[in-house]
Structure formats: structure tokens, C-alpha cells
Amino acid sequence: MAEISLGGAPQSVDSIQSSYMAQVQRRRLYSGLTLLIFVVLMASGFTVADDRNAGGFWEGLHQIGDYPADVLSEAWEKRADLPGLIAKYFPALVETINIAAVSTLIGAVGGLFLSLLGTRGLAKWPRFITVFRRISDIMRAVPEIVIALVLIFVLGGGPVPAMIAIAIHTAGALGKMFSEVAENADLKPVEGLASTGATWSQKMLLGVLPQVAPNYISYALLRFEINIRASAILGFVGAGGLGYELRNAMAWGPGRFDEAAAIFILLFGTIVVFDQVSSRYRNRLTGGHAQ
Amino acid sequence: MTAVDLDTTKLDADALFRRKRLIGFGIPAVIFAYLVYIFFAFDISGLAGRANWDNAVTLASDSWSHKVHVTRDNRSGEVSYTVEGERKGTYPDGQRPDWVTGDEVITIDLGAGHIVRYLPDNRTEIDIPGYPLIEVQAQGRSLASSLPDDLPDWISASNRRIGITTPEGRITLTGARTEVFNYFPGWELFWFTLDSPYHGQGLGTILFGEQLDPARGNIEGAISDWWNNAMWRHKDVAWAIGETILMAFLGTMGAAIIALPLAFLAARKFTPITLLRATTRRLFDFVRGVDALIWTVVLARAFGPGPLTGALAILITDTGTFGKIFSEALENVDQKQIEGVASTGAKPLQRYRFGVIPQVVPVLLAQILYFLESNTRSATIIGAITGGGIGLMLTQAIQTQKDWEEVAYYIVLIVAMVMFMDWISGWLRGKLIGRKD
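Predict the joint structure of the above. Result:
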């Protein structure tokens, strides 16, 4: 406490203490109130959600295990078929991964341009920095499902609508993350290149990209993980791949649970494998010393 | 340096350059090859054939315009006027749009000289500039018309059905009914439906004018009529958006509350028992790996469709993600502060509370708030699967394939909702952590 002068009379120690206690009490009151509001929000939110749900929380709680148990027991009975089913759904898995990979590639290129054009000091047209930032904000705000559903209506079902939808969202999301990295880039190489008469694209390619590449690739890998999940979910609304097969398998219900189980296994395995691989590479890229 | 030294250095440098060049050309080549493979795997060349451009045109034009149907039932001879052909948008008896005139002969002026006349005995005359007068007579289930055999591409005709598309509007005729669609820009009936006394009144009249409905005050009545608008369902939409945000809020906060204590179990600094630590970490990996999609499917079986299912699916998935992030943050805490607190005689719980939590809270809050925004988007998608929130309304509106202006409305609302959550999470982050970015 800088403003309190030292060496005052003993009385002032009392006043310091009492004002300190008052401050502490006030802070406790505020944090208590915040906590109370939070608890009330959570409790009332839970009640509302519970009311508007078809089945209640407490009635459903003991049934959580039923469906997985049914699926697992049926899959276990027909375990001889599982390898065949996994082979059958492998092409769908490849499609899901392809959707994620292509949309990450396209989105990363889009995000690269959005970030470079929207960063102060690097932008080609400094006047339009805000425009490019708003564009990436809006692209980031549109949930994939919105674009996917509209495009499915126009282009028909299949991987392309999902790919475009995820790519648009990825471009916006990566645009923001990339530009945070680009803001911290050292401008000296850019100035050096500018003094040799380099064009904007040369300055970016030779001056900025080598600095930011490890972070950019690390973010793109993280996005790839997220996009695998997104592409599986979009399949569920008709955009092809594993999610689509899962919906069909679900629709058949009991008797075909082995197919659902095969898809669950594929999806789970893929997500875990790609998570591990990508987090390994990301650590190496950003950690640097792990090599 | 001797010549030998320089030679080896040069060789090394050459090899390095060769490798760099190989990578420099190799990576783009691999990416290009992959894109070529995708081109065939996704059948991009066949896309143009599969795409339905009529749908795209309908979507693009319907999303910002509405149409008014003038329908004659050829059996009863009744003529009805409806917005978008919905019962909720029917003009009350005795009212009709001002571009329709006449009693015996009903004249519909579509604009730019395009005129359709409903004559008695189920006869119809269509007058289009630059084309001979078209006369159609409906008899039972078939049609007799004056159309020649050689038709322009904006007219399709058989003896059962005739369709005429003009820039001013569309006309379809069948034995049972004759329909004219007149297009107008804007979202009609967005504020009030036709049966509301406030329809067609200006804002000034409602706020300051005389009382329009004897039973209710103007402002109160107008708000209630707008809120209960049967066409646009503002009340349901508001509830749906609330449900979506609720799913994200409950899921994110619940996950954070559950993940925090578990994260201590997964952090090396706080749990020396390897088995316990490994088990917790595998648990995090498992719930994260199962993914929100599968959790949604599984939970929907137990709890039925609704926002609670979506909230729980988000909660379970994010418990894994938060657990991982939190435990990493806990690994990085500074031991000195904990020792300082311990030196005052603090018990373990107090050591965590005053030595550890203050260090990790900024990281935790930043992550939680970031996930709150990102989960709003997830909740939209999960809602479409499990049946709750604005995601479901959007899916239904798209699947009925006719209310494109509602689809456009929902899209605008969803984007606004996500941007609002983004803004609020950034604002809270600034307030709570004191660092703005």
C-alpha cells in the first residue's frame, strides 16, 4: 500500500488495520455475492433446462448406462463381425478425415491472408485493416452447421458442403489466432526487405512467414483436431462421412447395434490418435527444445 | 582455415541447401497431389451436375422477399389472399391487397403491365406485354388453354398443369385451383400478423396515437401481439436462443467445476501416486475422445431430447478438455508461493486455496470464457441433433424448404448471438483478469 506513510503514531496502525479489515470484508462480500449470483444462475439454469427437457435429469440418471450397455453387449455377441464392419466403414472414416484435412488446408490459407491483411504494420492496405478483421470475426461467428445446411440444400448431400462450411469457420478462427502471432512478429526483417524494394508478397513470404511459421503450423494442427470432430458431427446432419453412417446405424436401432459400435470405435480411435500425434508435434514446434 | 576444411563446409552447406530446396518444393507438391486426390474423391467435377441451381435461386430471392398468394379454389369459386400461402398469414374476410380489384371479374395487377383476370366459370385471362393474351379454362381436373404448341421457356404447360414465370410474379393453374404469386421485398408480417389491430400502423401511431384496441393499451397490446406473432414466433425464437446459451453456460461452467478438483489429481506436483495420476489422465482422454457427438447420442437415449441433454454432452466432453488444460496449468505453478503459505502453518486445503488457486485463476478463467463462446456454437449444432434451441429451429426451417426468410432470420440471430457471446466473454475477461486482448 503505497499511499500509506510509515512511521506514524501507534494510533494510525489501528486505523490502518481497521481500514484493511474493512477492505477485506468488502472484498469478501463482493466475491461472496458473485459466488451467490453464480450459484443461483447455475441452479435456476439447471431447473429451466431440466423442465424443458423431454426426460428429467433424475429419472434419466440411472439410465445413462443402458444404451452403452445394450450396444456393448450386442457388439460383444457379434464380435466376430466387428473387424468386417470396421473395414466396411473405413471409407467413411477416410471421408471424414479428408473433409477435416482439406478444410483445414483451405481455411489455413484463408486465415493466413486474413491475418496478414488485418495486422497493423503488415497490412497491404492499412486502411482496410478493420474490414478484414470484421470479415474474420463474422466468418468465425458463423457455426459450421448453418453454412452446411444451406449448402446441402443447394449442392445436395456429400462431403463438399461440409468442407466449405468448416473451411469458412476455420479461416475466421485461424485468422484471429494468426494475427495475434503476427502482431508480435519482429518488423526489422520486413523493413530490411522493404529497403531492397521487395513487394508486399515478398516481404510477407521472406520476412514474416519464417518467424511465425512454427506457431501457425501449431495452430493449424490444433484446428485439424477440432475439425475432425466437426466433420463427424456435420455428417450427422447429412454431410457424408462417418457421422452420416452413424445416423443411419442409429436409425435402425436394436439388432444393428454392432454397426453403431463399429462406428463408435472408429471415431473414438481416430480422435485419440490424431489428438496424440498433433499434440506431440505441437509441443515440438512451439517448445523448440524438445528436438 | 585450410582448403580441406572449406571443402567439407561447402559440401555441408550444399547438402543443407539441397535438403531445404527439396522441402521447399516437396511440401507444395505433396499438398497439390493431395488436392488432386480430393478433387476425384469428392467428385468435384460432378458437383455442378448434382447442384440444384433452382434451389439456390429460390433461397437467394426468398430470403429477402415474400410473396402474396391469390388463390381461386375452382370448385367453390372462393378467392383467398394469403401471405406466403400460410393460414396464419391469411387476409381477414373483406380485406385484400390493393393491387387486386373487381368483384365479378377479379383483376390482379402484378405490375409492369402484367395482369391476371379471374373470370367467372373458372376462366382465367393472363395478359403479359409482348405475348398474346393467354386464356385458360379449367374443366374438372384438366385445363384447356389458348397457348400454342411452341412455348417460350418461361411457360410450362400440359393439360393438367400450366406454370408461367415472369419477372413480376408466378402463375400456376391446375384443374382444382388457380394461383398467382406476387413478390415483394422485405419480411412481411415481421411485426404484426394481419389479424392484429396494429398491423400496418406506424411506430408513431402506436406510441402516441389514439387507442387502437379498446381492450388494451397501445404499447402493451403491440408488444404482446409482436411477441405472440404466429408467423415469426418471436417468443419461441427467444426461448430457443435462451436454451442454446443455457446449454453452453451450464455445460462450460459445470465442466469447469468438475474438472478443477480432478485436475489436481492429474498434476504431477500434487499427486505423487503415478497410478492415480495416470488413471485420471486416461479418464480425461477418454471423455474427450468419445466426443460431443457420441455423448449427445448416448445421453439423448437416457434423458430424451432437450437442452439438458445438450448441456450434459458439452459438460462431459469439456470436463476432459478442461481437465487436461487445468492440469497443465497446475504443473506450471510456482512452488515458492505454496511454500510461503505453508510456512504460516496452512493446512493442505488452505495451501491450495491461497498458494495455488491465485496463480492459476487467470489461465483458468481465460480458458473457461473462451470455451463459453466456442460452446455457444457447439450448442447450436448439438441442439440440431438432440432437439433443442435455435439449432433445431434452423434445421426444421431448412427441412421444410419454404420459409427461407425465416432461415435468413435465424442465421442472422445465430451470428448475432455468437458475436454477443464473444463480446461478453472478452469483456468479462478484461474485467476479471484485467488484461485486454
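Chain B touches chain A through 65 residues (CB under 8 Å).
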